[in-house]
Write a structure and sequence with these properties.
The chain is of the alpha+beta class. The chain has one domain: Outer membrane efflux proteins (OEP) (Up-down Bundle), CATH 1.20.1600. It has 9 helices and 10 strands. The protein has helices spanning 2-19, 27-37, 39-59, 125-193, 199-233, 257-267, 269-289, 331-397, 403-437, and strands at residues 23-25, 65-73, 80-83, 90-91, 95-96, 102-105, 111-121, 242-244, 295-306, 314-323. It has a 4-stranded antiparallel sheet, with no helix packed on it. Strands 1-8 form a two-stranded parallel ribbon. A two-stranded antiparallel sheet has the order 3-6. A hairpin with a 3-residue loop joins strand 4 and strand 5. The longest helix is centred in the middle third of the chain and has 69 residues, at 125-193.
Length: 441
């Protein structure tokens, strides 16, 4: 009976244990999550949606403006109008006009009016079309801003991801050092008991061990902070635990300078934005120039009056309205000059952006080459430091050298290990910078 109960309990616990396993977060998964849920990217995406709605609103200006209006009123005081006999003249064949005294009294009830009108812009269609085109350009600019925001977030995610791997590597090196010092502690303790080593040497080993244990705690804290920062970039709960995975095999990136620059000039969002800004400035100039065109509207309307006795109770009309500002004291000319300056500014900015892009690509290519060479140097240094530590440790076991040489060699080996790990990750860092410089996410 007890065995069945235990088996059932295990069956119930297994799904929970599987669910509670720490998430394995790969770099591609981290990038996908960040690009979808990061708050900065979401805000830029909302801005693009806002610009799109503005363009839709501009398109509605092509159509007639339909409006309805009305009102009602009531006289607080009665008003009477009397027209005496013959006040408008006496004519031989007709006689007096009016032929007798006429009294008209104002309505004591509520009077009202309702009007329906439609106004279609005619000459403004050209200006409206220019505004729509400019709105479309602004939407494209917002799209490039979104790509730029995604690149920045992707760069930040990679940086944090690499930082977590670096923190793990540093912790592994420190834990390896702790194991070494624990083994050395036992050896020196025996030597002290045999009176072949001094007590201060054991105290120094204990001090080194305690320092490494403190370093391990610091590295754990740094690792926890980096995980929280990465969770924040991913737009999720900062306390969510996860483990990073080994980085995939490095994919070769073209190191041909001319090819890389051509790729950057084609893909980089800032380059594309600079071209769109020129187009936007030119459209702004054309819009201001269109202000010289007279305003011509086609208008139609229908109105109805209630409780009015002096005039017809309905009215309908169709007509053209023309408005031309023939003299503006130089306002339009100055506005055109201002827009022309914006075009020149956009041209200069585009040249500057292109130059910065070329410098950025060349710099990243140099850094990548330097990082790859640093790995070779760091690997040789690590191998030399490891072999030196082994040799000196064997000599110390034979009591052929002083303990201090072993301690110095261990410190050098730990430093070489850290440098090798940093060199490996520097290649990934350099490649990530190059990808961003090329306009890739």
């Amino acid at each position: 009976m007890f065995q069945r109960f235990l088996f059932g309990l295990i069956v119930l616990m297994v799904p929970g244990m599987v669910y509670c396993q720490t998430q394995q977060l790969t770099l591609p998964d981290a990038l996908d999550i960040a690009l979808e849920h990061n708050l900065t990217v979401s805000n830029v995406r909302l801005h693009q949606t806002s610009v799109s709605k503005n363009v839709d609103a501009l398109r509605t200006k092509r159509y007639p403006v339909l409006s309805v209006s009305g009102g009602t009123s009531k006289n607080l005081e009665s008003q009477n109008y009397t027209f005496e006999k013959g006040v408008w003249g006496n004519y031989p064949t007709v006689g007096d006009i009016p032929s007798k005294d006429i009294t008209i009294e104002s309505a004591n009830d509520f009077t009202g009016m309702a009007m329906l009108s439609a106004v279609l812009p005619l000459s403004q269609q050209y200006s409206i079309d220019l505004n729509i085109k400019q709105g479309t350009v602004k939407y494209d600019i917002a799209g490039e801003q979104l790509r730029l925001a995604k690149q920045d977030i992707a760069r930040a995610v990679k940086q944090q991801y690499f930082g977590i791997i670096q923190a793990h590597n540093d912790l592994d090196v420190t834990m390896e050092s702790i194991l070494f010092y624990k083994s050395l502690q036992k050896l020196v303790t025996n030597y002290v008991a045999q009176q072949t080593a001094f007590k201060y040497e054991l105290l120094e080993v204990n001090s080194k061990l305690a320092q490494r244990q403190l370093n391990a705690q610091s590295e754990r804290n740094r690792l926890a902070t980096r995980k929280e920062q990465l969770n924040n970039l991913l737009g999720r709960d900062i306390n969510m635990d996860f483990n990073v995975t080994k980085l995939p095999t490095l994919q070769g990136v073209s190191t041909d300078v001319d090819e890389a620059i051509a790729r950057a000039l084609k893909l980089r969002p800032d380059i594309r934005m600079s071209k769109l800004n020129i187009k936007d400035a030119k459209l702004g100039y054309d819009i201001k120039k269109a202000d010289y065109i007279p305003i011509i509207d086609l208008s139609m309307g229908y109105s109805r009056f209630y409780n009015y006795d002096l005039i017809p109770d309905t009215e309908s009309y169709v007509g053209l309205r023309v408005k031309w500002e023939f003299f503006d004291w130089g306002r339009k000319k100055n506005l055109l000059a201002s827009e022309n300056s914006k075009i020149r500014q956009a041209d200069n900015k585009a040249i500057e952006t292109k130059n910065k892009a070329e410098i950025d690509v060349k710099k990243c290519l140099r850094q990548l080459n330097e990082s790859e060479q640093s790995v070779v140097v760091a690997e040789l240094s690590r191998a030399a430091a490891k072999d030196k530590l082994q040799v000196l440790m064997n000599q110390y076991k034979q009591q052929a050298i002083l303990l201090q040489k072993v301690l110095d060699a261990e410190t050098g080996f730990k430093r070489a290990n850290n440098k090798y790990s940093s060199a490996i990750l520097s290649v990934w860092e350099s490649q990530a910078k190059l990808e961003k410089a090329l306009g890739e996410i």
